[in-house]
Amino acid sequence: MRLTRINKQILLGILFIAFFGVNSFAQKKQNFVIVIDPGHGGKDPGARGVVEDEKDIVLDVSLRFGKMIEQKYKDVKVIYTRKTDVFLELWERTQIANRNHANLFVSIHCNAAGNRSAYGTETFVMGVARSQETMEVAKRENSVILLEDNQEKYQKFDPNDPEAVIAFDIMFSAYKDQSISFAKLVEDEFVKNNRHSRGVKQANFHVLRSNASPAVLVELGFISNQDEGTFLSTEYGKKSMTESLMTAFDKFKKEYDRKNGLEEEVEEKPKVVEKPVAGKTFKIQFLVSKNKYSPSSEQLKGLTGVEIVQAGDVYKYYYGSTNLPSERDELLEYVKRKGFKDAFVAEFVNNEKLKGKENYRIQFLASGSRYRDRDNKFGGLKNVLRVKRGDMHLYFYGSSKTYEDAQKQLKLVQDKGFKNAFIVLFDGEKLTNN
Ligand SMILES: [Zn+2]
Fold first, then answer.
1. What is a single molecular function from GO for this protein (predicted)?
2. What's the CA-to-centroid distance between 66 and ligand 1, angstroms?
3. Least enclosed by CB within 10 Å: which of 4, 7, 92, 416?
4. Tell me: the pLDDT tens digits for 103-151?
């Protein structure tokens, strides 16, 4: 028997309800499930960034996002498609969502473009790509299929075939509105946090297509762009993007509860205000080396704002600074994920004075030439100490008893244009030996 198009639509509709409709009746409070899907991973790095690659940025933001939800909501279960740097096939990602009856599926990605000036965020919902540009993003995010072993798992979807389009429209109409509403919330929050939004778009992503839940794919920005790529690699940038996602989720969840008559029952976990540890600052020491690396060096694996202190003939490398135990633990986890397995927490007593004749100075110049006091090379820095080492003359500014004062002097020297200046531990006017 030949089915008419109308019959086909009805049939698809029935199938759709049979397969997926049950979920909405089975949902009780206590089990709003969000599946967070950090894109790419393992052998698939995703887009290459100016500082950090897509797979690392999105994993980091995803873990932060999930953790924030877990800390705030008792009635939300967070499931990740991956929590480490592993390769996952696209169908596995959606399977995780479907198996767990997700109420929301959020796939997190970063964009890249040949045109390095391209920037901004965008959030996709399942649909038929309306523009060439959107098709390009879909092509790139789907391209991982080529890395997978069983490509036959992916049915052909031809956006030009009206029947296929109708079939998908039916299948996703129930979730489409919710997907679009969450996508809009996400983009609105990005804008509030000073990002440039390219808007909510529709595209045929496999990872969205096979989802039996509201599903969005968020592009956090273009990591091929110098500014945005750098921003997304910093602690600050990742935090800011996570907070936007969180606020969007708060609003989505509130609306979900309201629609499901759960408003009165909503219990938020009491917010525990964490006390800072008095008188101490935590930093992560991740490297000790006889080599002095520049801030952009590959050895630092994209960590930004690294502090370097020379003591004797080794350089110690520190990342981050906090007096909150939770942040300290997060920083350590982050640095370890970056590949510094031996990283540990270094505790600094605030304003602790060095003992005896010990003091910190700022090395800002090393040269084969011997310069006189107030040489033009010093950029106006006064009372410069010169130390001869081998054939080299090393030039130092200032002298301070506390690390905090040394940081201030370092800043002053860097502002004079000596960007590679660093802190060195001295014993009187001599470099320390240990
Ligand atoms: Zn991606």
1. N-acetylmuramoyl-L-alanine amidase activity
2. 19
3. 4
4. 999 999 999 998 999 999 999 887 655 566 666 777 767 666 666 555 4
Q: What is the pLDDT of residues 214-270, one digit of tens each?
A: 889 999 999 999 999 999 999 999 999 999 999 999 999 999 988 887 764 445 556
| Cα–Cα distance for residue pair 125/117, rounded to 1 Å | 25
Give the pLDDT band of residue 211 (cuts 50, 70, 90): low
How many angstroms is it from 90 CA to the middle of ligand 1?
A: 11
Distance from C-alpha of 7 to C-alpha of 49, rounded to nearest angstrom: 49
* Range with the poorest average pLDDT among 179-193, 208-222, 382-396, 412-426: 208-222
Q: How far is the CA of 111 from the centre of ligand 1 (A)?
A: 7
What spacing in Å lies between the alpha carbon of 47 and ligand 1's midpoint? 6
Give the three-state DSSP class for 103.
Answer: coil
**Of the ranges 22-31, 62-71, 128-137, 142-151, which one carries the lowest mean pLDDT score?**
22-31
- The Cβ of residue 294 has, within 10 Å, a number of other Cβ atoms equal to 10
Amino acid letter, 252 = F
Q: Ligand 1: distance of its center to the CA of 89 in Å?
A: 13
Beta bridge pairs of residue 38: 108
CA of 143 to the centre of ligand 1 (A): 9
Are residues 187 and 254 both part of a single domain? yes
Domains contained in the chain, number: 3
287/238 same-domain check: no
DSSP three-state, residue 1: coil
Q: Which of 297, 323, 349 is the last residue of a domain?
A: 349
- Shared domain check, 185 and 175: yes
Q: Give the Å distance between the CA of 225 and the centre of ligand 1.
A: 15
Kindly indicate the confidence band of residue 210, based on its pLDDT and cuts at 50, 70 and 90.
Answer: low
CA of residue 319 to ligand 1 center, whole Å: 28
Tokens at 72, concatenated = 């705030």
Same domain (yes/no): 339, 356: no
Distance of CA 200 from the midpoint of ligand 1 (Å): 16
Query: What's the domain range around 297?
Result: 275-349
Q: Which residues pair with 76 in a beta bridge?
A: 32
- Residue 302 Cα to ligand 1 middle (Å): 19
